[in-house]
Amino acid sequence: MRRNLPIFGVLTVLLVAIAIANPYFLEPQGFLAFVKRAAPLAILAAGQYFVIVSGEFDLSVGSLVTAEVVIAARLVDGDPGATWPVIALLLAFGALVGAVNGLVTTLLRVPSFIVTLGMLLILSGAVSLWTDGSPRGALSEQFRQFGRGTIGPVPWSALILGAVVAYVVWLMRADFGRTLVATGDNQTAAALSGVRVHRVKTIAFVLSGLSAAVCAILLGGFAGVSAQVGQGLEFQVITAVVLGGVVLGGGRGSVAAAIAGAFTLQALFTLLNLHGISGALEFTVQGLILIVAVALGTLQPSWRPRRRKPPALTS
Amino acid sequence: MGRMLRMTGIGKSFPGARVLSDVDLDVAAGEVHALIGENGAGKSTLMKILAGVHRPDEGTIELQGKAVEFGHPIDARRAGVSIIYQELTLLPERTVAENVFLGREPARRGLVDREAMEKATALLMDELGEFSFGPRDLVARLSVAQQQVVEIVKALSVDARIVVMDEPTAALAEHEVELLYRLVRQLSERGIAVLYISHRLREIFELADRVTVLKDGAKVATVPIDQLTTADLVRMMVGRDVTDYYPARATREAGDVLLKVSGGGNDRLDGIDLELRAGEIVGVAGLQGAGRTELAKALFGAEPFSRGEMTPKRPRSVQEGIAAGFGLVTEDRKSEGLALHQSVRDNALLVARTRGQRSGAKVLDLLKRVRLAPPSPEKEVRLLSGGNQQKVVLAKWLTVAPKVLLFDEPTRGVDVGAKASIHELVRELAEDGMAVLMISSELPELIGMSDRIVVLRDGRIAGHLPANPSEEAVMHLAAGS
Known about the structure:
The structure holds two protein chains of two kinds. Chain A has 13 helices and two strands, in the order ααααααββααααααα. By secondary structure, chain A is an all-alpha fold. A two-stranded antiparallel sheet of chain A has the order 1-2. In chain A, helix 2 crosses helix 12, helix 3 packs across helix 10 and helix 11 packs across helix 12. The two termini of chain A are 26 Å apart. Chain B has a six-stranded mixed β-sheet with strand order 6-9-10-3-11-12, with helices on both faces. A six-stranded mixed β-sheet of chain B has the order 17-18-19-15-20-21, sandwiched between helices. Chain B is 34% helix and 25% strand. In chain B, helix 4 crosses helix 5 and helix 5 runs parallel beside helix 6. Chain B is built from 18 helices and 21 strands. Chains A and B meet through helix 8 and helix 9 of A and helix 10, helix 11, helix 15 and helix 16 of B.
C-alpha cells in the first residue's frame, strides 16, 4: 500500500488549494458538485485500471463513450418508457466492444494498443456515418437524472460512483484481482500456474467497456448529447491511471489509486479554472503529467532500494 | 607451426565468486584446440576474456608473441580474435553480405558499395566450398548450419587469426555436423587457430589436436588427443571428491504407479517410455538440448505430447495437467515461476482454485512447511533470496497437493544452505507419497538425490541407470560416446 500514498497526498494538497481559492468547496454542496463532475472520469479510470494492470491498453473508451451517448439519444428519443431498456442495451454494447477488444488482443495476438486504436477509429467513423455530423434524438428526463439529478442532497452520480468503487475494490480482493495482477506482472508464470490468461485479459477489457457505458450514461445526463462528448477521454483516463501510480506494462498499482488519480486530475483542472487559466491548456497539462508520472515510475525501482533497502531474506 | 596464442596465469573473480584461477592456455597456429569442462568450469569466462568482454584480474595474453590487452571486444576483433557464440549474433533481416561487412561496409562516394560487398563475400564463400545460398540471401531464411557458415565467412573477412567456437554443434542436425567439421579443418589448413568448446566428446576426438580440461575454474591439463581415451577425458572432467551431503534415499519400496507414458512424442521428443511411482525420485540427465525441459513440459501439458499413451490421460493444456495432479517447478523461476512484484501470499495462491486451497491459515502452514524463513506472506517476492523464491514456488504447488511434481533445475541460483534445505524438502515430499521427477545439470545433485536416473539424448531416452551410478556412466549415456 505504501506506493499508493503519493497520489493521495497530492490529491489532498490540491483539494486544500481548491478550498482556499473557493471556500464554497468546503460546504457539502460544493464538494458534492465536485464529486459529480469527477465521477464519470473516475468510473472510466476504474475500468481502464483493469486493462492497464493486466499489461494492456484501452484507447477505444473515448469513442465508445461518444457512441453510447449518441445511440442513447437516438433510441430513447425523449420517450421515458425507453429509459431502462436502452440503459440495458448500452451496458451490453459496452461489454460487447470490450469483448471484441479482448478477444482480438488475446486470440489474434494483435497488440492492444493497435486493436483499441483501431476500435477508436471504427467507432468514431460509425458515429459520424450514423449521425451525419449532428446527433439526433434526445435523452429522456429519467435518463438525464443519473448524470445531473440528486436524491436528497446526494447526486446520483456520486452514489453510482460509490457502488462502482465498492464493486471494483471487492473484485480486486477476490481471486480475479489477484490473478489479473499476477498475469500483468508475469504472463508466462501465470499461464504455467494454470491461469487462463486469455480469459482474464478479455474480462479486463469487458470491464473497461462496461465502465465506458456507465461513464456515458452519466456524461449524457451531465453534459448533454453531442458527437464530441467522449473526445480525448481515452487520454484523460490513461493520464489519470498513470498518475495514480499504476505502471504501464502491468502488474503494479491499485484500483483505489487509479480512481484517486482521476480525482486528482479533475481537481487540477478545477484549480486551473479557478485561477483563470485557460481550459485550452488542459491537454498541455495532461501531457506533462503523463510524461512526468511515467518518468517517476521508471525511476522508482532504481533509487528506492538504495534509500531504504529492505533486508534480503536469507535462508 | 608457430605459437598463436598464449594465455598465462589468468585469474578472474566476480563479486562473491572466484571463477578462474591461474589458467594457462596455449594454442598453435593451425591447431584445433578443444576446451572442455562441466557447466561452470570457467570455459565461457576464459573465452570472454579472450574476446575482450571481461578483463582478467591477473595474467597476461600474448598473440603471436606480442603482449596484448583487450579493453573492449573491438580491440580483440582488431587483433584477429573472432568468436562464434552459441546463440548466433547475425541480423536476421539483413543479407549475408550485409552481415559479413556489418559495421565496416565498403563505401563509394559516401554510399555503401553493395556490389563490392557482395563480390567480396562471394569470393570468400567460394574459397570455403559450394553452398546453396548466396551473398544476397536474407539471413532469416538460412538454417543454423548456414548461419554458421556466414559467421565463418565473417571471421575470414576480418582476417581472423583465432576463431573460437562455442558449442557449435548444439543446434545442428546430424548431417550438418559434417559440414561444420569440414569448415573447421579448412580454417586450420589456413593456419588459423581454432578453439573448440564442446560437451560432445565424439567431436573432440574427431577434430581436435589437443584438449585443455578445466574444472572449477582451474586447468586440469592440456593433452594431445591421441594420448587419451574417452574414459580419461570424462575422469579429468568430473574427477572430484563427492563430499556433498544428500538426504537418505527412499526408506520404503516405491508405491503405486502414478504416471505411465509409452511412446510419448512431439516435435522435440520421441519414443518416451516412462513410469513414475509414488515415493520415488527419478532423476533426468542429459546435455543441453537433449529435451529435458521439454519432457517436463510435455508431461505437465504446457508443451503437450502429440502422440503416445499416457496414464493419467495425456494433458493437452496446463489446466488439464494441473487437474490430473501435476505440478511443474520451472527452470527459470524469475521468468516462468513467479510474479516478482506480487507478495509471497499472492504467488503462493496463484495455482489455488478452490476456497479451501486458498484459506489464509493454510497458506501460512505451507510457508512453514517449505521452511520459508521468515514466513512473511506480505513481502514482495522479488526481495527474497533465490532459495526463498524457490520455496515460494514450491508452496504454490503444494496448495493443490499434486501427485506428481516435476522439478526443472530445482537448485539453480540457490545458495548452498538453501540448497540442502530444498533437497530435504524434495525427499520429504516423495516420502509423503508424491512421485518426483527431477531434472538437474549438476551431476552430483542428480546422483545424490535420485532413486534412479533416466538419461535423455536428442529427445529420446538414451538409457536408465539405477541409484548411485558413477558420473562417468551418466556422461557416457548423455554424450553418446
